[in-house]
Design goal:
tRNA (cytidine/uridine-2'-O-)-methyltransferase TrmJ; tRNA processing; Alpha/beta knot; tRNA_m1G_MTases_N; alpha/beta; Helicase, Ruva Protein, domain 3; tRNA (cytidine(32)-2'-O)-methyltransferase activity; transferase; seven-stranded parallel β-sheet; 10 helices; single chain
């Protein structure tokens, strides 16, 4: 398979974008690098003439963009989501630079859909949004002025993804990396979110978690499982254990 086809498995997700021009600019950045799957989570203005004006030559991407009510909807069906953020985070997931992150995404794109998630222009991604992802991508920039325009950040990552595809074309792996390190099928975003909901429910029912003072237990659990890159069978085992615990309560 031509590695460039992997770009068809990459979703560009823009969350709560304020300025429609940035949506158009992002669409144009995607088109120049061969990406065409744009997801918009609650954009402030869309459709919009300014978005169309900025998307010169890439109106097809705008017209088929999927508008979602929630980030969960945009990530449904993915096996890896990367939060693109410049801010340091407490209880952070694994952090990669743009080049490393692009390679990680394409590795799992050989199996199923993956996503790059970008936040609002002013404040970026929220802590909750980052927790929905499994890795963090940081674009190295001038530390004295590291703020990238949203469309520019999309352009940088689109370029890195295309270059990662080129590297695969020039030096194909000995065998396709279609599975995770353990050899099993990667769990999808939806399956892992159901696991988190089940885990939280059991933690509350058992008295281990006080819903009035949850602290950061679930955030820590999300970080733990994000590092593990859970497989489908592993999720089923964990949920089976939780169900067995529920029966004994």
């Amino acid at each position: 398979m031509n590695p460039l086809h992997l770009l068809d498995k990459v979703r560009i997700v823009l969350s709560h974008t304020s300025h429609p021009g940035n949506i158009g600019g992002a669409a144009r950045a995607m088109k120049t690098m061969g990406l065409d799957s744009l997801y918009l989570v609650n954009p402030r203005f869309f459709p919009d003439k300014e978005a169309e004006r900025r998307a010169t030559g890439a109106l097809d991407i705008l017209h088929k963009a999927k508008v979602c009510d929630t980030l969960d909807e945009a990530l449904s069906g993915t096996v890896l989501a990367a939060a693109v953020t410049a801010r340091q985070r407490d209880l952070s997931h694994e952090v990669f630079d743009g080049r490393q992150g692009a390679t990680k995404l394409l590795d799992l794109a050989q199996k199923d859909f993956v996503a790059l998630v970008f936040g609002t222009e002013m404040s970026g991604l929220t802590t909750l949004e980052v927790s929905k992802c499994q890795i963090i991508i940081h674009i190295p920039a001038n530390p004295e002025y590291s703020s990238l325009n949203l469309a520019s950040a999309v352009q940088v990552m689109a370029y890195e993804l295309r270059m990662a595809c080129r590297d695969l074309l020039e030096t194909p792996p000995a065998s396709p990396t279609l599975t995770l390190h353990g050899g099993g099928m990667a769990a999808t975003f939806d399956e892992i979110e159901l696991l988190y909901a089940h885990l939280e429910q059991v933690a509350i029912s058992s008295g281990f978690l006080d819903p009035q003072e949850p602290k950061r237990l679930m955030q820590r659990m999300r970080r733990l499982f994000a590092r593990a890159r859970l497989e489908k069978e592993e999720v089923n085992i964990l949920r089976g254990i939780l169900s067995a615990c529920e029966k004994r309560m």
